[in-house]
Design a protein that fits this description.
Two copies of one chain form a homodimer.
Chain A (H helix, E strand, L loop, with lengths): L5 E8 L2 E5 H8 L7 E4 L6 E10 L4 E12 L3 E3 L2 H7 L5 E2 L11 E3 L4 E3 L4 E4 L2 E4 L1 H6 L7 E6 L5 E10 L6 E5 H6 L7 E5 L15
Pathway (chains A, B): Polyol metabolism; 1,2-propanediol degradation
Catalytic activity (chains A, B): propanoyl-CoA + phosphate = propanoyl phosphate + CoA
Function (chains A, B): Involved in 1,2-propanediol (1,2-PD) degradation by catalyzing the conversion of propanoyl-CoA to propanoyl-phosphate.
């Protein structure tokens, strides 16, 4: 590794749901408490035992897991591969930006629910803590590139930088992106400070 | 577009099978003649009406189409997404290089067949005619990069150059790669002559 290379762990996101309490109660029953299955790499987040089915106009995907904690609005994150299977238009968005996105029907053990919006293909992004962001001269909202090496080497552009003290530093990509690069969860990518974001005041740093 | 940009049409390959005559006869019956469904972009190649099921240790994929003409050895091209569904190890190879690759079971209307090898994830590649290759100073076997623009912009590296008079010029990627870049069949990518292959005698050319 050269002195100017910064590596980051890759977190591969499979399809999942961030759920609002009122929606969970429709699907799992009033007063239902989600059960912890396993901790995720982001502190305070966990995969729950609860899964639901996604029903689109063209197809169904079973066993889609709920990630906790609960959110104000239900957001369903799928891949483009999933969108084609479900028969819904893929809309690439940053997490939380769901206005005007497609909806679909969720089926749980106690009920079902048709959402008018909330299905996104999450834009690739990097979680950084403020100290790391400062070291790299990056700010929340910046977009950079990352290099994946190996037999299916590729450079992902337009990777959104998100900065928060609660984060663990990680590059989040979906299964299509991971498979295009033939990488798995926990492997490393290299941060690239491309000319779109390179500035005189943003030198490469070593961690 | 700058004077130094060369664009190429993207051909997205879904899972498919190139089949040997003796294997087709096991699956579809002795003397079976494949029926033409539609021409492919590569001259002389066509999708047949015939489909088979792929049976792996972990899962099944139905309706996988045979592409013609017949070949000497059966080769099954799938995505990494498919490999995980089938439960077989993904092996990325250039087309034709199937020695030591995983096998699986094919099921047709008249029989089934378990292959010891032949399942590959096809390495991304570009088909060029000799005149185009000459213009771009590229040779069969070279590897270059291509840029995909848009909301999921990415650069694919290690793209194999294949040169043959029978080809139509096209970048062939699989569904995982297309979905990672949010591109569809027939859209355009830009050829990049990266430093790995850049040489004094290989200037950028315009078509």
């Amino acid at each position: 590794m050269s002195a100017t290379e910064i590596k980051i762990a890759i977190g591969v996101s499979n399809r999942h749901i961030h759920m609002a309490k009122q929606d969970m109660e429709i699907l799992f029953g009033k007063g239902h408490e989600p059960k912890m299955l396993k901790h995720l790499s982001q502190p305070g987040q966990y995969a729950s035992e609860e899964v639901v089915a996604l029903l689109g106009p063209k197809g169904t995907i079973e066993n889609v897991r709920l990630l906790m904690p609960l959110r104000k609005k239900t957001q369903i994150e799928v891949s483009l591969t999933d969108c084609y299977k479900l028969g819904i238009a893929p809309v690439i968005r940053d997490s939380g930006d769901i206005e005007g996105t497609p909806g679909l029907t969720l089926v749980g053990p106690k009920g079902q629910l048709t959402l008018k919006e909330g299905v996104i293909v999450a834009a690739r992004h990097i979680h950084l803590r403020p100290k790391e962001a400062e070291l790299f001269k990056l700010s929340d909202g910046d977009r950079i590139s990352v290099q994946i090496s190996g037999s299916r080497a590729l450079r992902l552009d337009q990777v959104l930088i998100r900065v928060d003290p609660s984060f663990a530093s990680e590059l989040h990509i979906d299964t299509d992106e991971a498979n295009a690069g033939a990488v798995k969860n926990g492997e490393l990518a290299t941060l690239l400070f491309t000319k779109e974001v390179a500035r005189a005041d943003r030198p490469l740093a070593k961690v």
